[in-house]
Amino acid sequence: MSIVHSGTHNHLSGPDFFNAQVRIGKQLWAGNVEIHVNASDWYAHHHESDGNYDNVILHVVWNDDVSVYRKEGTEIPTFELKDLIDPQLLNGYQKLMKGNDGQFINCGKDICEVSEFNFKNWQDRLYLERLEEKSQVIIHLLEEFNNDWEKVLFTMLLKNFGSKINGEAFFQLGKDLNFSQVRHLIGKPLELESLFFGMTGLLETDDILDSYYIELQNSYRYLSSKYDLGTFRSPKASFFKLRPLNFPTIRLSQFAMLYSGSNNLFNELVYCSTEEIYKRFRISASSYWDTHFNFGKKSKNSRKIVSKKFIDLLIINTLIPVRFCYFRSKGNYNSDSLLFLIQDIKEEKNSIIENFKLLGLSVDSAFESQSLLQLYSNYCTKNKCLKCTVGTNLLNLKS
What we know:
Layout (H helix, E strand, L loop, with lengths): L1 E4 L2 E2 L7 E8 L2 E12 L2 H4 L11 E8 L14 E3 L6 H11 L18 H29 L4 H13 L1 H14 L2 H6 L4 H11 L11 H16 L21 H13 L4 H7 L2 H8 L10 E3 L2 E2 L9 H22 L5 H9 L7 H8 L7 H15 L8 H10 L1
C-alpha cells in the first residue's frame, strides 16, 4: 500500500481526511480516510450508521482489533501502525508528553539539550509566524479602511496605548472615529483630547468644578455638534486595576499630543531610524496632567512622559507589524531590517518569559521573548510537540 495524496485534514464532523488517494496493490482508490486508536472505535462512534463515512477508503488504526464493514457489507481496508513504530521513539514520545506533570512545559527538563543552531533557527521561524498572525488584524483594517495606512497606524497605535485593560476600548475608538476629523484637529491638542475623552465617556460628569475639565466638555460639545456625533460613544475607558501612569486620561492625552504635532505620522514612522522612532514617541501629556492623574484631583507635580519601556511595546506590537505589512505590500519586504530592530529592544518582562529563563534559556532581546511567547501559546499549551523543532529534536536525541 502507498499513499498517493493525503487529502485535506477535516477539523469538523465526518472523516478525518477528505479526498485522499491510496494505492492498494494495483488499484488506485480515491475517497476519505478515518483514523482511530482501535479499529473497534468505528463501532463505538457509530460510524457504521453514519452516511458521512460511506466513502471511507482506508481505516488507519494503532490496534487492528476488529474488522470494519461499510453499510453495504464490504470490508474497509485497514492499516495498522503499532508494529511499524520504533519502540524507543514511542517511549520517548510518551515521556515527553508526560513530562509536564507539575512543570511549566512538557520538555522543561530537556529543552536546553537542543543545539543552539537548531533552536535559533526555530526562533526565527517562530517570530515570523508571530508577525504573520499580528498582520491579520492589519490586513482586515486595510480592507475596512480602504487601504488608508495612516488610519490603520492610528488605530493600531491607539489600541496599544490602551494596553491590556483599555486596548479593546481604544481599538474600537480608533475604528469608530472618522479619521478626516482627526486630520482637521492636528495642531489642536485640546480639541483632540476632548474628542478622545468625550468618545470614551470621560467627560460625562457635570459635578467636577475644574476649569480644564469644563473647557474640554465645551470643546467636545462643539465637536459633537460640528461632526454630528450625537449620542455616539465608543466603549467606556476603565481605570480598574491600573497604575496611575496607565490611566486612560494620561494615555489619551499623550496620544493626543502625539497626533497634534504631525500631519503624516505614518511616513515619519515607517521610514525613520530607530533613534528617530524613540525621539518621535518621547512625548508627554498636556500640562494639566503634570499635577493630575484624574480630573479635579491634584497630585504631585511630574511630567507624564512616555517611557522607553512603553515605546518598546509600541514598536513590538504596532510599528514592526505595520512595517512588515506595508513593505510586503510594496514588494520590498526585508525581514533582516525588522529583525535588527527588534533584536535591539530589551526582552519583555512577564511570568512566561521568567519561566523560560528558569529552565536555563537566555532571553536578552524582544526578538527572543516574542519567539518564546509564540512557542508557548501556539505549541506548548496545545501539546503540539510533534510540530515543534524542540520536540522533534528531543525525540531524535532519545530514540
